[in-house]
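lol ok so funny story. i was supposed to be doing the assay writeup but got distracted and ended up predicting the structure for this chain instead. priorities right. anyway since i did it might as well share w the group, maybe its usefull for someone
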Amino acid sequence: MIREIELICSECRGNFSADSKLFYKENFKTRDFAEIELICQQCLDKWLEYWKIKEADFFEEGASFYVDITLANGTVLQKIDCTAMDDIVALDRDIPLEAQKELYHIYKKWYDKKMRDAIKHCQFEEVFMRTSFTCETYGGEKYTDIAFRFTRTGILETEKPIPDAIGEQVIKLWNKYELANTMVRVNEE
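and the output, tada:
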């Protein structure tokens, strides 16, 4: 038996006709063709236009990545959970593939800059009345035998100027180094 289905857009609720393609919202709970949420061309075009990206700012909190997105229409979306994979950035919401790819290009630039300034390895040396570090970033910057100390208020001072981003990482690495050495001393006693 042949049955008929009216093409009704799930967004604007209007009837429409299809050319050679039907657009629908992906829903893994759908069990029947009649439950598919169809989208008309006009609503699809509105959705694609809405997701034109003007700029995006990626950031990291804990072990998670987030993005603030400014769309071409002026809408600002803040702290959206995201994951970069296979040349796209997946968000916690449905966006067009073209927007996911555009976000990936912006993410890649941000990530490459972040990694360029990230410390690849760092070695500390403690010699009579002098503590120093030698480190290298993923971008190839080297900081060799830089003496340092902490002020009474906990601020890092170095004998040679270093970028703030490197200083912040050295502080974290020094704290881990100190903790590891404290644990070794406790175990030896």
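Residues 164-188 form the longest helix (25 residues). The helical segments are 41-50, 97-116, 164-188.
back to the writeup now i swear
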